[in-house]
């Protein structure tokens, strides 16, 4: 895959606005209407465009100018823009720096762990850094152990409209580890009078490490059906004597699982604590971590590099990890504008070149609040999605998976899916029965039901309502029916 090093305007150059063109079958013909009605939807809920990616000719469309919630389809333009800005060979770096004097295994100075926004950083990556540090002979640090997160803004969650306990709505920051999730384990007492046993772990492919930045307080107060309540902002006291630690109140609920995945909301501190634990296992004694910055006089002691961005982008488009999308998008946006501090600002910076490159596309109504699509308030039209698909180009579209949420799509379909309660989307390319490769963007959203759910949301409850799950099942069936229609139609 070859992408120009830095020519986002050329890479994202889009063809003219979507226009109605002659089609071998009607965009709103009997099959289209039948599929929509058969699955229990109103025609106003559905929007799509089916097009020739080379000529821009529209073969079928429904409400191409209506804004819909993109959900994770937003990751497709984010990855395309990031590849254009940073280049497919870009690698994220996590580094260790030292100050002072090293002698007889003792570093008489500071050790600094600096994050570079690596979305794939794991405990194994930290172990590599420690291996290099150990090779220098370090066994103890008399100064400070600092963690530096200055490369990117740090935030406690991606979207404030999600449940507190949603493992997909994590904190975001330059020093993010193990996808910023932790596993919470608990066990009821073996005998009366004994306490409930609880533990928090940072988990990677090769093992788990106790997460010392998390404190869990047992007791009532979470509320019926809600096991967890965050306490970070309730009393203002630091966890473990350190500012910014995470505190949760846990009230066991009947029938709840013994292990749950919860989001890390202070990623830099959590990663530093895991590093300290791993250092102790490696025979290197470190003081408690505190935030800081790498001074100009520091010496680089170790370096860990991620896989190339092309590999990471392919993983994002297949596995749809929200944190990875946000970190990659933030890195690209800050390359263009170092002043970016929020996810909405970052999304706007990455979208602007595509809009400039396609001036005849109607960009009215476009509103992307982040790079992952984790927001019920983001909006995009089918026509705008078409322009972004064409701007992404064949090299990026080749990274798309042939599956939707782990389920195999029909042969010849490669697409990015998106799912929120009362919102379903799919965008990419398909191969027709006649052998043609076409682009498509499909959306279905129930605005009223989503708005009603948001008005009554209890952030302590992570599960979506049963009626929303039933709605999504119908939306997936409509998606399958339309794909079948489009594949057979040409």
TrEMBL record:
Gene3D superfamilies for the chain: D-Ala-D-Ala carboxypeptidase C, peptidase S13, DD-peptidase/beta-lactamase superfamily
Pfam families listed in its UniProt record: Peptidase_S13
Superkingdom field: Bacteria
InterPro entries: Beta-lactam/transpept-like (IPR012338), Peptidase_S13 (IPR000667)
Gene Ontology MF terms: carboxypeptidase activity
Signal peptide residues on this chain, from the entry's feature table: 1-22
UniProt entry keywords in alphabetical sequence: Carboxypeptidase, Hydrolase, Protease, Signal
Residue ranges crossing the lipid bilayer per the database entry: none
SUPFAM superfamilies: beta-lactamase/transpeptidase-like (SSF56601)
Family to which the UniProt record says this protein belongs: Belongs to the peptidase S13 family.
Protein name: D-alanyl-D-alanine carboxypeptidase/D-alanyl-D-alanine-endopeptidase
